[in-house]
Amino acid sequence: MEEKNGKNQILIKVCCVIAAFILWLYIFNVENPMTERKIVVPVTIVNKNVLAQSKLVQIGNEQPNVSLIIKGNASDVYSVKPNDFKLNSDLSSYVMKKGENNIPVTVKKSPNNISIVNNQNLWIKIQLDELRKKIVPVKVILTGKPRGGYYALHPVLETEKAEISGTQESVGAVKYAAAVCDLKYAQSNMNTTASLQPQDTFGNLVKGVDVNPAIVKVTVPVGKIKTVPVNVKFQNGSIGTSEAGLITAVPQKIDISGSDDVISGVNGIDTEPVDLSKISGRENMQVRLVVPRGVVLVNNSGTVQLKFNSNTDETSGGSQKQLNLNINVKNLNNNYTAKLSSGTVSIVVSGTDSAINNINENSISCFVDAGSMKEGVQSANVVVSLPEGLKLVSQNPQSVNVEVNKKTWEGQNGY
């Protein structure tokens, strides 16, 4: 009996819902009463060029909007969408000033079957600041790597300067205009165009800034890589032939690149002449390389180490190898991000021929420890951990600057 009563109650409720829906359809489609509704519509600002003439600029690029109160038959009012309207604010009709400006909104288009109740009271507020301009250098940022055996040479720009304009704060933050070029798998010269992006000291995009020119042509020469020996040169009479055989360069070979007609005639890179008579003891020393015109050193800063070996040197019969490693960040708090002043380190290692031949970037641990770091910029030592049997000959750089910032979570205000 209770089960039957429950089914009857459910049936009654369903009938009530159906009756209410039928009544709503009747009122909406037959009676179709007059009603009002609020709708948010975007506003287009026209004649912005007058701001530059007055040496002003808008703060922020967000499109303004206003709330319209519309009235009409229910079927018409509830079918209207924001894009059915066209609202303008004309800056050429008013005198602009630095700070907050109230600009009236004009309705240029609206549906014929509805009316706007608050048509005579539509305004938007825009913030204006003094227009600032300055010239900044154009910097090419290369992403991706050319195909194996090739190297990207110095880029050639159509223009090396760009003019930026905007608010005093945003213009002051810009340090250069970046042209980003992707070199992935390139094996020949790349000619392309790139949009210029205003960036700050740390490579962050600065918003609200105009760049002129907006696009620049970039040519990135791509040359083959060639491995050549390092020839240690001495000043006349500074060292005997037998002693010269005990002095080696670390690394003994380096990679070079350049146009084919240039590097084809280069079979070795000389050091600057060294006068060993002016050196006390037999400590390792650093010397500069003499790089021919048109030749580019690959993963080398332009110097090598001179190593003074004895006849009983434990590394005699061994080898050296130069590697370019990515620096990782370890133990960083999950609430922070870290940016390094240099993302790579160049090292030279020595060891037996077998150990050198088996080494690669993945077998070496290279990192900075950020476990105790807080927000701000701080210096940290670069730790290089080598496999057994290898010795670290040189490392550049020894330390890097680490910029630590708190993460900005999605939905969090940026101020």
Structure keywords:
46% strand; RNA Polymerase Alpha Subunit, Chain A, domain 2; transmembrane; 8-stranded mixed β-sheet; YbbR; 32 strands; 415 residues; single chain; YbbR-like domain-containing protein; 7-stranded mixed β-sheet; 7 helices; elongated; membrane; mainly beta
Number of domains: 5
**CATH class assignment of the largest domain:** Mainly Beta
Strand content: over 45%
* Structural class based on helices, strands and sheet pairing: mainly beta
**Number of separate strands:** 32
Q: Could you tell me the mean pLDDT?
A: 83
Rg from C-alpha positions?
A: 35 Å
How would you summarize the topology of this molecule?
Blueprint: H1 2-31, E1 34-46, H2 49-53, E2 56-58, E3 65-73, H3 74-77, E4 86-90, E5 99-104, E6 106-109, E7 115-116, E8 123-130, E9 132-143, E10 150-152, E11 156-157, E12 161-166, H4 168-173, E13 176-182, E14 190-199, E15 209-212, E16 215-220, E17 222-231, H5 241-244, E18 247-250, E19 253-258, H6 260-263, E20 269-271, E21 285-290, E22 296-298, E23 303-308, E24 319-326, E25 328-330, E26 336-340, E27 344-351, H7 353-358, E28 365-369, E29 376-381, E30 383-385, E31 390-396, E32 399-406
Parallel strand pairs: 1-4, 9-13, 17-20, 25-28
Antiparallel strand pairs: 1-3, 2-8, 3-7, 4-6, 5-8, 9-12, 10-17, 11-16, 12-15, 13-14, 14-16, 17-19, 18-23, 19-22, 20-21, 21-23, 24-27, 26-32, 27-31, 28-30, 29-32
